[in-house]
Amino acid sequence: MLNNIRVLEISAPETMLGGQILGDLGADVVVIEPPHGAAGRRIEPFLDGVPGLDRSLTWHALNRNKRGITLNLESPDGRQILGSLAAKADIILEAGYDSRLDDLDSGVTADTIRCRITPFSRGGPKASYRATDLIHMAASGAPSLAGDPDRQPLFFPVPQAMMEAGAEAAVAALAGLVARDRLNISQTVELSERMAALLSSLSRAVTGGSGDALGKRGDDTGRVPNMYDCVDGFMLISISMNRSLVHLTKGAAEWVADEGLFPHELANIDWANFESLTTSGKTPASIMSDLVAAIKVACLSKTKAELTAIAHERGFMAAPVATMKDIHSSEQFRERGLFEEAQLAGDGRSVRVPLRFAQFSDYSIELRRQAPLFSQHTHEVLSEDVGLSSIEIQALFVHGVI
To answer: Is residue 215 helix, strand or coil?
Structure first.
Protein backbone atom coordinates (compact mmCIF):
# COMPACT_ATOMS: atom_id res chain seq x y z
CA MET A 1 0.00 0.00 0.00
CA LEU A 2 2.82 2.44 0.93
CA ASN A 3 5.63 0.35 -0.52
CA ASN A 4 7.10 3.36 -2.35
CA ILE A 5 7.03 5.62 0.71
CA ARG A 6 10.07 6.24 2.91
CA VAL A 7 9.59 7.38 6.49
CA LEU A 8 12.23 8.80 8.79
CA GLU A 9 11.20 8.54 12.44
CA ILE A 10 13.17 10.42 15.08
CA SER A 11 12.30 8.01 17.86
CA ALA A 12 10.32 9.23 20.85
CA PRO A 13 7.64 7.44 22.87
CA GLU A 14 5.00 9.52 21.06
CA THR A 15 6.21 8.60 17.55
CA MET A 16 6.40 4.82 18.01
CA LEU A 17 2.81 3.86 17.18
CA GLY A 18 2.60 6.33 14.29
CA GLY A 19 5.75 4.95 12.68
CA GLN A 20 4.55 1.40 13.17
CA ILE A 21 1.19 2.09 11.52
CA LEU A 22 2.97 3.52 8.47
CA GLY A 23 5.30 0.54 8.46
CA ASP A 24 2.37 -1.85 8.73
CA LEU A 25 0.93 -0.20 5.62
CA GLY A 26 4.10 -1.03 3.72
CA ALA A 27 6.32 2.05 4.14
CA ASP A 28 10.08 1.70 4.62
CA VAL A 29 10.44 3.18 8.11
CA VAL A 30 13.90 3.99 9.47
CA VAL A 31 13.80 4.84 13.17
CA ILE A 32 16.69 6.90 14.57
CA GLU A 33 17.81 6.51 18.17
CA PRO A 34 20.59 8.22 20.14
CA PRO A 35 23.68 6.06 20.79
CA HIS A 36 22.47 5.40 24.35
CA GLY A 37 19.15 4.03 23.12
CA ALA A 38 15.68 5.45 22.55
CA ALA A 39 13.46 6.39 25.46
CA GLY A 40 10.95 3.81 24.25
CA ARG A 41 13.42 1.06 25.12
CA ARG A 42 13.11 2.04 28.78
CA ILE A 43 9.34 1.77 29.03
CA GLU A 44 8.01 -1.12 31.10
CA PRO A 45 7.15 -3.97 31.12
CA PHE A 46 10.40 -5.79 30.44
CA LEU A 47 10.89 -9.36 29.28
CA ASP A 48 10.96 -11.59 32.40
CA GLY A 49 11.01 -8.38 34.47
CA VAL A 50 14.68 -7.81 33.58
CA PRO A 51 15.46 -4.35 32.12
CA GLY A 52 17.65 -3.97 29.07
CA LEU A 53 17.79 -2.06 25.79
CA ASP A 54 16.36 -5.04 23.88
CA ARG A 55 13.98 -6.25 26.61
CA SER A 56 11.21 -3.64 26.65
CA LEU A 57 7.99 -5.33 25.58
CA THR A 58 6.56 -1.88 24.86
CA TRP A 59 9.36 -1.31 22.37
CA HIS A 60 8.75 -4.70 20.77
CA ALA A 61 5.00 -4.00 20.58
CA LEU A 62 5.26 -0.57 18.92
CA ASN A 63 8.24 -0.80 16.57
CA ARG A 64 7.68 -3.74 14.25
CA ASN A 65 8.15 -3.30 10.50
CA LYS A 66 10.93 -0.74 11.00
CA ARG A 67 14.67 -0.60 10.50
CA GLY A 68 16.61 0.90 13.39
CA ILE A 69 19.82 2.92 13.52
CA THR A 70 21.69 4.96 16.12
CA LEU A 71 22.83 8.51 15.44
CA ASN A 72 24.19 11.25 17.67
CA LEU A 73 22.29 14.37 16.64
CA GLU A 74 24.47 16.49 18.93
CA SER A 75 27.40 16.03 16.54
CA PRO A 76 27.89 17.79 13.18
CA ASP A 77 28.48 14.44 11.47
CA GLY A 78 25.26 13.08 12.94
CA ARG A 79 23.23 16.03 11.73
CA GLN A 80 24.84 15.78 8.28
CA ILE A 81 23.85 12.10 8.03
CA LEU A 82 20.37 12.99 9.25
CA GLY A 83 20.12 15.55 6.46
CA SER A 84 21.14 12.95 3.87
CA LEU A 85 18.46 10.56 5.10
CA ALA A 86 15.84 13.30 5.34
CA ALA A 87 16.45 14.37 1.75
CA LYS A 88 15.22 10.96 0.59
CA ALA A 89 12.25 10.76 2.97
CA ASP A 90 8.61 11.23 2.04
CA ILE A 91 7.61 11.62 5.69
CA ILE A 92 9.60 12.79 8.71
CA LEU A 93 8.01 11.88 12.03
CA GLU A 94 9.32 13.67 15.12
CA ALA A 95 8.30 14.82 18.59
CA GLY A 96 8.90 17.82 20.84
CA TYR A 97 10.62 21.11 20.17
CA ASP A 98 14.02 19.77 19.11
CA SER A 99 16.19 22.63 17.84
CA ARG A 100 18.67 20.09 16.44
CA LEU A 101 16.11 19.33 13.74
CA ASP A 102 15.84 22.94 12.55
CA ASP A 103 18.57 22.27 10.00
CA LEU A 104 16.20 19.90 8.20
CA ASP A 105 14.05 22.79 7.01
CA SER A 106 16.68 23.71 4.43
CA GLY A 107 17.68 20.13 3.60
CA VAL A 108 14.42 18.38 2.85
CA THR A 109 12.66 18.57 -0.47
CA ALA A 110 9.39 20.37 -1.07
CA ASP A 111 7.70 16.99 -1.35
CA THR A 112 8.59 15.92 2.20
CA ILE A 113 5.80 15.85 4.79
CA ARG A 114 7.03 16.80 8.25
CA CYS A 115 4.83 15.62 11.08
CA ARG A 116 5.72 16.85 14.55
CA ILE A 117 4.04 15.80 17.82
CA THR A 118 4.29 18.53 20.46
CA PRO A 119 3.34 18.26 24.14
CA PHE A 120 0.91 21.20 23.97
CA SER A 121 0.03 23.69 21.26
CA ARG A 122 2.98 26.01 20.78
CA GLY A 123 0.80 29.10 20.80
CA GLY A 124 -1.24 28.08 23.83
CA PRO A 125 -0.86 28.95 27.52
CA LYS A 126 0.56 25.50 28.33
CA ALA A 127 3.32 25.56 25.75
CA SER A 128 6.05 25.51 28.43
CA TYR A 129 4.45 22.85 30.65
CA ARG A 130 6.40 19.73 31.51
CA ALA A 131 5.26 16.88 29.30
CA THR A 132 4.34 13.58 30.94
CA ASP A 133 1.55 11.19 30.11
CA LEU A 134 -0.04 11.89 33.50
CA ILE A 135 -0.14 15.64 32.78
CA HIS A 136 -1.50 15.14 29.28
CA MET A 137 -4.29 12.87 30.46
CA ALA A 138 -5.16 15.21 33.34
CA ALA A 139 -5.29 18.15 30.91
CA SER A 140 -7.51 16.17 28.55
CA GLY A 141 -10.27 15.87 31.13
CA ALA A 142 -10.57 12.10 30.58
CA PRO A 143 -9.90 11.10 34.22
CA SER A 144 -12.88 13.19 35.30
CA LEU A 145 -15.03 10.48 33.72
CA ALA A 146 -13.51 7.59 35.65
CA GLY A 147 -13.78 6.54 39.28
CA ASP A 148 -16.16 6.90 42.18
CA PRO A 149 -17.30 10.43 43.08
CA ASP A 150 -16.01 10.16 46.67
CA ARG A 151 -12.47 9.25 45.62
CA GLN A 152 -9.65 10.52 43.47
CA PRO A 153 -10.09 10.14 39.69
CA LEU A 154 -8.72 7.03 38.04
CA PHE A 155 -5.88 7.37 35.56
CA PHE A 156 -5.10 4.97 32.75
CA PRO A 157 -2.75 2.06 33.55
CA VAL A 158 -0.92 2.50 30.23
CA PRO A 159 0.57 5.62 28.57
CA GLN A 160 -2.67 6.48 26.79
CA ALA A 161 -1.80 10.00 25.57
CA MET A 162 1.36 8.64 23.93
CA MET A 163 -0.71 6.09 22.02
CA GLU A 164 -3.39 8.60 21.02
CA ALA A 165 -0.72 10.97 19.69
CA GLY A 166 1.00 8.24 17.69
CA ALA A 167 -2.22 7.15 16.03
CA GLU A 168 -3.15 10.75 15.20
CA ALA A 169 0.33 11.33 13.76
CA ALA A 170 -0.13 8.43 11.34
CA VAL A 171 -3.48 9.84 10.21
CA ALA A 172 -1.95 13.31 9.79
CA ALA A 173 0.98 11.94 7.78
CA LEU A 174 -1.36 10.02 5.47
CA ALA A 175 -3.47 13.14 4.99
CA GLY A 176 -0.29 14.98 4.08
CA LEU A 177 0.52 12.37 1.46
CA VAL A 178 -2.93 12.75 -0.08
CA ALA A 179 -2.56 16.54 -0.22
CA ARG A 180 0.88 16.21 -1.79
CA ASP A 181 -0.01 13.60 -4.39
CA ARG A 182 -3.46 14.87 -5.38
CA LEU A 183 -3.20 18.62 -4.88
CA ASN A 184 0.58 19.17 -5.14
CA ILE A 185 0.57 20.82 -1.71
CA SER A 186 3.52 20.27 0.63
CA GLN A 187 2.53 19.86 4.27
CA THR A 188 4.11 20.53 7.64
CA VAL A 189 1.85 19.10 10.30
CA GLU A 190 2.04 19.86 14.01
CA LEU A 191 -0.27 18.12 16.42
CA SER A 192 -0.59 18.44 20.18
CA GLU A 193 -0.36 15.35 22.35
CA ARG A 194 -2.77 16.97 24.76
CA MET A 195 -5.30 17.51 21.97
CA ALA A 196 -4.88 13.90 20.85
CA ALA A 197 -5.62 12.77 24.41
CA LEU A 198 -8.59 15.11 24.48
CA LEU A 199 -10.31 13.03 21.79
CA SER A 200 -10.96 10.30 24.35
CA SER A 201 -13.18 12.67 26.35
CA LEU A 202 -14.41 14.96 23.59
CA SER A 203 -18.02 15.21 24.73
CA ARG A 204 -16.96 16.32 28.20
CA ALA A 205 -14.57 18.92 26.82
CA VAL A 206 -17.16 20.31 24.40
CA THR A 207 -19.71 20.54 27.19
CA GLY A 208 -17.37 22.66 29.29
CA GLY A 209 -16.20 24.76 26.38
CA SER A 210 -19.76 25.58 25.38
CA GLY A 211 -20.51 27.04 28.79
CA ASP A 212 -22.66 24.21 30.11
CA ALA A 213 -22.06 22.87 33.59
CA LEU A 214 -19.48 20.10 33.74
CA GLY A 215 -20.67 16.76 35.01
CA LYS A 216 -19.10 15.00 37.96
CA ARG A 217 -17.60 11.57 38.29
CA GLY A 218 -20.24 8.95 38.83
CA ASP A 219 -23.18 10.97 37.56
CA ASP A 220 -23.12 9.82 33.93
CA THR A 221 -25.34 6.85 34.65
CA GLY A 222 -27.34 8.56 37.41
CA ARG A 223 -28.45 6.11 40.06
CA VAL A 224 -28.26 3.12 37.72
CA PRO A 225 -24.83 1.43 37.65
CA ASN A 226 -23.70 -0.40 34.55
CA MET A 227 -20.81 -2.51 35.87
CA TYR A 228 -21.50 -5.76 37.72
CA ASP A 229 -19.27 -8.35 39.38
CA CYS A 230 -19.54 -11.87 38.02
CA VAL A 231 -17.78 -15.19 38.59
CA ASP A 232 -14.77 -14.46 36.34
CA GLY A 233 -14.59 -10.68 36.18
CA PHE A 234 -16.99 -7.90 35.30
CA MET A 235 -19.99 -7.51 33.03
CA LEU A 236 -21.29 -4.26 31.58
CA ILE A 237 -25.09 -4.30 31.61
CA SER A 238 -26.92 -1.19 30.42
CA ILE A 239 -30.26 -0.52 32.12
CA SER A 240 -31.34 2.47 30.08
CA MET A 241 -33.98 5.04 30.94
CA ASN A 242 -33.71 6.58 27.51
CA ARG A 243 -37.19 6.35 25.97
CA SER A 244 -35.89 4.89 22.72
CA LEU A 245 -33.95 2.16 24.54
CA VAL A 246 -35.89 1.56 27.74
CA HIS A 247 -37.76 -1.38 26.21
CA LEU A 248 -34.47 -3.30 26.38
CA THR A 249 -34.62 -3.06 30.16
CA LYS A 250 -37.59 -5.43 30.09
CA GLY A 251 -35.36 -8.28 28.96
CA ALA A 252 -33.09 -7.90 31.98
CA ALA A 253 -36.10 -7.56 34.31
CA GLU A 254 -37.71 -10.73 32.96
CA TRP A 255 -34.42 -12.59 33.35
CA VAL A 256 -33.96 -11.77 37.05
CA ALA A 257 -37.69 -12.43 37.61
CA ASP A 258 -37.27 -15.95 36.22
CA GLU A 259 -34.27 -16.31 38.54
CA GLY A 260 -36.66 -15.63 41.44
CA LEU A 261 -34.96 -12.36 42.35
CA PHE A 262 -37.54 -9.83 41.10
CA PRO A 263 -41.38 -9.77 41.00
CA HIS A 264 -42.81 -10.95 37.66
CA GLU A 265 -45.58 -8.34 37.78
CA LEU A 266 -42.97 -5.56 37.92
CA ALA A 267 -40.86 -7.13 35.18
CA ASN A 268 -43.84 -6.88 32.82
CA ILE A 269 -44.72 -3.22 33.31
CA ASP A 270 -44.93 -0.82 30.37
CA TRP A 271 -41.24 0.12 30.43
CA ALA A 272 -41.68 2.64 27.62
CA ASN A 273 -43.77 4.71 30.06
CA PHE A 274 -41.60 4.00 33.09
CA GLU A 275 -41.28 7.63 34.20
CA SER A 276 -45.01 8.35 34.16
CA LEU A 277 -45.75 5.11 36.00
CA THR A 278 -43.37 5.94 38.83
CA THR A 279 -44.42 9.60 38.96
CA SER A 280 -48.10 8.68 39.23
CA GLY A 281 -47.43 6.07 41.90
CA LYS A 282 -48.72 3.19 39.77
CA THR A 283 -45.28 1.58 40.04
CA PRO A 284 -43.15 1.61 43.23
CA ALA A 285 -40.50 4.32 43.28
CA SER A 286 -37.98 1.71 44.41
CA ILE A 287 -38.41 -0.45 41.29
CA MET A 288 -35.13 0.60 39.70
CA SER A 289 -33.02 0.13 42.83
CA ASP A 290 -34.71 -3.25 43.37
CA LEU A 291 -33.95 -4.24 39.77
CA VAL A 292 -30.30 -3.25 40.14
CA ALA A 293 -30.03 -5.21 43.39
CA ALA A 294 -31.50 -8.27 41.66
CA ILE A 295 -29.07 -8.00 38.73
CA LYS A 296 -26.13 -7.74 41.14
CA VAL A 297 -27.14 -10.98 42.85
CA ALA A 298 -27.85 -12.78 39.56
CA CYS A 299 -24.48 -11.84 38.08
CA LEU A 300 -22.53 -13.18 41.04
CA SER A 301 -23.42 -16.76 40.07
CA LYS A 302 -22.73 -16.43 36.34
CA THR A 303 -19.63 -16.24 34.15
CA LYS A 304 -19.11 -13.60 31.48
CA ALA A 305 -19.82 -16.19 28.79
CA GLU A 306 -23.06 -17.24 30.48
CA LEU A 307 -24.19 -13.63 30.89
CA THR A 308 -23.38 -12.87 27.25
CA ALA A 309 -25.54 -15.79 26.13
CA ILE A 310 -28.37 -14.70 28.44
CA ALA A 311 -28.25 -11.14 27.09
CA HIS A 312 -28.49 -12.43 23.51
CA GLU A 313 -31.41 -14.69 24.41
CA ARG A 314 -33.28 -12.11 26.48
CA GLY A 315 -32.55 -9.11 24.30
CA PHE A 316 -30.92 -6.68 26.72
CA MET A 317 -27.69 -4.73 26.34
CA ALA A 318 -24.64 -6.38 27.91
CA ALA A 319 -20.98 -6.90 27.16
CA PRO A 320 -18.17 -8.71 28.97
CA VAL A 321 -15.28 -6.59 30.21
CA ALA A 322 -12.42 -8.34 28.44
CA THR A 323 -8.95 -8.65 29.90
CA MET A 324 -5.90 -9.12 27.69
CA LYS A 325 -6.05 -12.81 28.58
CA ASP A 326 -9.66 -12.93 27.35
CA ILE A 327 -8.73 -11.24 24.08
CA HIS A 328 -5.76 -13.54 23.60
CA SER A 329 -7.92 -16.64 23.97
CA SER A 330 -10.95 -15.33 22.09
CA GLU A 331 -11.94 -17.64 19.24
CA GLN A 332 -13.58 -14.71 17.47
CA PHE A 333 -10.35 -12.70 17.44
CA ARG A 334 -8.38 -15.73 16.33
CA GLU A 335 -10.77 -16.45 13.46
CA ARG A 336 -10.68 -12.83 12.31
CA GLY A 337 -6.94 -13.08 11.74
CA LEU A 338 -6.04 -10.06 13.85
CA PHE A 339 -3.35 -11.92 15.79
CA GLU A 340 -0.25 -13.73 14.58
CA GLU A 341 2.57 -15.76 16.06
CA ALA A 342 5.82 -13.81 16.23
CA GLN A 343 9.27 -14.38 17.63
CA LEU A 344 10.79 -11.78 19.91
CA ALA A 345 13.88 -10.41 18.19
CA GLY A 346 17.03 -11.43 19.98
CA ASP A 347 15.16 -13.82 22.26
CA GLY A 348 13.55 -16.34 19.94
CA ARG A 349 10.48 -16.99 22.06
CA SER A 350 7.24 -17.22 20.11
CA VAL A 351 4.35 -15.05 21.26
CA ARG A 352 0.91 -14.31 19.83
CA VAL A 353 0.70 -10.59 19.07
CA PRO A 354 -2.07 -8.27 17.80
CA LEU A 355 -0.93 -7.52 14.27
CA ARG A 356 -3.71 -6.26 12.01
CA PHE A 357 -5.45 -3.10 13.20
CA ALA A 358 -7.52 -3.19 10.00
CA GLN A 359 -8.41 -5.67 7.27
CA PHE A 360 -8.25 -4.45 3.66
CA SER A 361 -9.73 -6.05 0.57
CA ASP A 362 -6.57 -5.58 -1.49
CA TYR A 363 -3.81 -5.42 1.12
CA SER A 364 -2.79 -7.55 4.08
CA ILE A 365 -0.75 -6.24 6.99
CA GLU A 366 2.12 -8.65 7.55
CA LEU A 367 4.94 -8.92 10.04
CA ARG A 368 7.86 -8.15 7.74
CA ARG A 369 10.31 -7.22 10.48
CA GLN A 370 10.47 -7.63 14.23
CA ALA A 371 11.12 -4.48 16.24
CA PRO A 372 14.78 -3.63 15.59
CA LEU A 373 17.39 -4.64 18.08
CA PHE A 374 19.61 -1.85 19.34
CA SER A 375 21.53 -0.39 16.34
CA GLN A 376 20.57 -3.46 14.28
CA HIS A 377 20.44 -1.74 10.88
CA THR A 378 22.95 1.08 11.36
CA HIS A 379 25.59 -0.37 9.04
CA GLU A 380 23.00 -1.39 6.44
CA VAL A 381 21.32 2.03 6.29
CA LEU A 382 24.51 4.09 6.34
CA SER A 383 26.05 1.90 3.66
CA GLU A 384 23.08 1.52 1.31
CA ASP A 385 21.16 4.76 1.88
CA VAL A 386 23.96 7.22 2.69
CA GLY A 387 26.76 5.58 0.71
CA LEU A 388 29.35 5.38 3.48
CA SER A 389 32.14 2.82 3.39
CA SER A 390 32.77 0.32 6.18
CA ILE A 391 35.86 2.31 7.24
CA GLU A 392 33.82 5.51 7.47
CA ILE A 393 31.13 3.75 9.49
CA GLN A 394 33.77 2.35 11.86
CA ALA A 395 35.16 5.84 12.35
CA LEU A 396 31.69 7.16 13.23
CA PHE A 397 31.38 4.44 15.84
CA VAL A 398 34.82 5.16 17.35
CA HIS A 399 33.92 8.87 17.68
CA GLY A 400 30.51 8.19 19.23
CA VAL A 401 28.42 9.39 16.29
CA ILE A 402 26.68 6.01 16.01
So the answer is: coil
